[in-house]
Amino acid sequence: MSKLTLKANPAVVAVLLLVLLWPAAARSEEAWLAVFEQTCSKTSEAMTLSVAELNALIEKCGELQKIIETQDESTRKVYLKRLQMCRNLYAYMLEHKKGGQASK
Amino acid sequence: MKRIVLVCLILLCGASLLWGAGGTKKRKPLPHEFGSVLISNYSRQAGLAPVQFDHWVHRKNYTCRVCHVDVGFGMTANSTKIRAVDNAKGYFCGTCHNGTATFGSTRIFASCATSYTREDYQRCVKCHALEKDPAREEAFYHFLERMPRETFGNGINWEKAEEDGLLKLVDNLDGVSFKKASMKVEGDFALKGKVEGMPEIIFSHAKHTVWNGCELCHPEIFMGIKKGSTKYSMIELFDGKYCGVCHDKVAFPQTDCKRCHSKQAQG
């Protein structure tokens, strides 16, 4: 009968340890940055977005703002400014679209 | 034609009077000084001279959008309130000036550290310059030699330089900028001048969005939703509003009337 032996590959063990020991805070930081990118990367196509899409993005910006406000001062300063610019553009486009719909 | 020249003269006189009324006599900046900004929020507290920021050095390599949207620099001098600790964390100047980033094959020197040694001080004074550095001036004129000329501002036609392929501006910083969909650019439009005889202004969205994107101008600088709803005056523009946020400060000056009032009369 063959005996099953598990050989520990050092690289696999290192990756597993990294995943397990990686601070939760760092993972959550990655998470909000990914949401930030997803939300604010649509500014170049803001003109083509629908009212519903713009509303959803603005809502997302509101959620992000709360998370960014809990970060350290430097991160807050940079990302609140960036968020404000993208949120304001979406709000501007929304107003433009609503104005267009009202005049039709 | 005479009428246009007369209107330009009136505008120039008006601008001079406005400056005069402000109580400060502004010296016309020399080409190498045009667009330079003195950053002085916390430098003196740290025992350093203010930062002499040369726009041209950065403008020749990067679009406006990269620094003013992706990196987050404000549009007016000293509005960002940059601290050494921000730079050391890799924000603002420290986004690129971190000692490891490169431009082409050149390594970009590191910016601030929260504490520094006597050796580090040599690096500090690259930006926190006590006196005018003749080498910086020389570097500008050396660069100018290769650029298409313009009468005003720093004497460079930046738009043509890019068109001619003399400049290849970076619009994306790894780890900072987002991958974006290509932009659907709004068409050019004409704005009627208030002064009779003055050619209409042709505003090119394409020329502006290529360097700025959308969010740099809307809605912070231009908040009007409906075309024609905002009435612009040259007084406001010379006062630093609307077009004056960039033009006069870093983009070509508004005294270069023909650059904007460019629509030819129908004959």
Concise synopsis of the structure shown:
Chain A is mostly helical.
Strand content of chain A: under 5%
What is the element string of chain A, with H for helices and E for strands? HHHH
Q: Return residue spans of chain B where pLDDT drops below 50 for at least 5 consecutive residues.
A: none
Structural Rg of chain B: 20 Å
Please, could you describe this protein's structure?
The complex is a heterodimer of chains A (104) and B (267). Chain A is mainly alpha-helical and 104 residues long. Chain A contains 4 helices and no strands. In chain A, α2 (24-40) packs antiparallel against α3 and α3 (51-68) runs antiparallel to α4 (73-103). The longest helix of chain A has 31 residues, at 73-103. The model of chain A is unreliable at 1-6 (pLDDT under 50). The mean pLDDT of chain B is 89. The two termini of chain B are 13 Å apart. In chain B, strands 1-2 form a two-stranded antiparallel ribbon. In chain B, strands 3-4 form a two-stranded antiparallel ribbon. Chain B contains 9 helices and 6 strands; from the N terminus they run αββαααββαααββαα. The interface between A and B is medium-sized, with 27 and 31 residues.
Summarize the topology.
The complex is a heterodimer of chains A (104) and B (267).
Chain A: H1 10-21, H2 24-40, H3 51-68, H4 73-103
Chain B: H1 2-21, E1 37-39, E2 51-53, H2 55-59, H3 64-71, H4 84-88, E3 102-103, E4 106-107, H5 118-127, H6 134-144, H7 158-163, E5 189-191, E6 201-203, H8 205-212, H9 234-238
Antiparallel strand pairs in B: 1-2, 3-4, 5-6
Features:
heterodimer, A: 104 residues, mainly alpha, 75% helix, 0% strand, disordered N terminus, B: 267 residues, two-stranded antiparallel sheet, 9 helices, globular
